[in-house]
Write a structure and sequence with these properties.
Radius of gyration: 16 Å
Low-confidence stretches: none
Strand order of the largest sheet: 1-2
Distance between the termini: 40 Å
């Protein structure tokens, strides 16, 4: 796959995309194993910990990662199928506030993540180069189908790093 070009995605996603070294599909595949393994090593008492008042717990962060992957994959599907209707944004804070993530176990999140990711891997592998190059408007920004591969993988990288730095260290 050709390297992602800066005109394929809005600058707002650059920090996620910059975390991807190599092929985004390879990174998505690698995360199928590494992220559940990461979750399995989070101490039991930390899963409902928030590092500051008003911040999400680890469980809420993980739920957010999975929800966001679903939203981004849906957007990719719409654009890959040449649906030219503009897609509105979503509010992650509202998703988390209405999800009851803290009632679940990290093990259930790991299982859900694997199933969602495997489904999305099949979806992205089904796209040809022409479909991956298609673009659409989401959240008032032009973006390619291919960019969603990088955003999904990079978004997970971003939040895994945040969990390490702000929730587990110290």
């Amino acid at each position: 796959m050709n390297p992602l070009k800066s005109d394929e995605y809005p600058a707002i996603y650059a920090s996620y995309i910059d975390t991807i070294k190599g092929e985004a599909l390879d990174m998505l595949q690698e995360q199928v194993e590494s992220f559940p393994e990461f979750l399995a090593h989070i101490p039991a008492g930390k899963s409902e910990y928030a590092y500051a008042e008003g911040k999400w717990t680890i469980k809420e962060v993980v739920g957010h990662v999975i929800d966001t992957e679903r939203v981004m994959a849906y957007r990719a599907l719409r654009f890959a199928r040449n649906d030219t209707k503009e897609l509105i944004g979503f509010e992650p804070e509202d998703f988390v506030a209405n999800a009851r993530f803290n009632e679940r176990s990290l093990e259930s999140f790991a299982e859900e993540f694997v199933l969602v990711r495997q489904s999305n891997l099949m979806l992205f592998k089904s796209f040809n180069d022409h479909e991956l190059a298609r673009k659409g408007i989401a959240s008032e920004r032009l973006i390619s189908v291919r960019a969603f591969l990088y955003i999904i993988a990079g978004h997970l990288n971003h939040h895994r790093n945040m969990i390490r730095e702000r929730y587990l260290e110290g």
